[in-house]
């Protein structure tokens, strides 16, 4: 895992060397979509991250499979106002479509838990 902190965002990167797969999670106010630069045919697939409906954008390029989704209102009403407008940008890359699907499934299990 690697963490990058910016002025109004944080990005967390996770990788699995055994499958050469990786997933990232951006939490901030101004996400940028990688698919807009893909120059490839982007497919859309409905999904969920936690309790939020999302649209996964999927494409392949240079022998790898990629996907990403923007998650609006993940924090909803259950957090302070300063976090309510944060957008999650989840992005993933893998050598096979099956590995990519596993990463999307894992991202779908994200849940917001209150600290006790």
Tell me the quaternary state: single chain
Mean pLDDT: 89
Helical percent range?
10-25%
Sequence stretches where pLDDT stays below 50 over 5 or more residues: none
**Straight-line distance between termini:** 25 Å
Radius of gyration: 14 Å
Beta strands, count: 7
Structural class: mainly beta
Summarize the biggest pleated sheet. 7 strands, antiparallel
Strand content: 35-45%
Strands across the major sheet, in which order?
1-2-3-7-6-5-4
Tally of individual helices: 2
Shape: globular
Structural domains: how many: 1
**Order of SSEs, N→C?**
EEEEEEHEH
Concise summary:
The protein is mainly beta and 116 residues long. It has one domain (2-30, 43-108).
Structure description:
With 116 residues, the chain is mostly beta strands. It has one domain (2-30, 43-108). It has helices at residues 81-84, 97-108, and strands at 2-5, 10-16, 21-28, 43-49, 52-61, 64-71, 87-94. The radius of gyration is 14 Å and the shape is globular. It starts with a strand and ends in an 8-residue tail after the last helix.
Structure keywords:
116 residues; mainly beta; 2 helices; 45% strand
């Amino acid at each position: 895992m690697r963490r990058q902190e910016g002025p109004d965002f944080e990005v967390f990167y996770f990788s699995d060397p055994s499958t050469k797969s990786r997933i990232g999670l951006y939490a901030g106010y101004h996400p940028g979509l990688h698919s807009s630069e893909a120059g490839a045919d982007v497919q859309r697939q409905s999904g969920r991250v936690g309790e939020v409906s999302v649209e996964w954008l999927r494409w392949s390029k240079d022998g790898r499979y990629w996907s990403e989704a923007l998650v609006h209102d993940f924090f909803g009403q259950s957090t302070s106002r300063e976090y309510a407008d944060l957008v999650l940008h989840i992005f993933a890359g893998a050598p096979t479509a099956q590995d990519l699907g596993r990463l999307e499934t894992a991202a779908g299990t994200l849940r917001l838990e209150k600290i006790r």
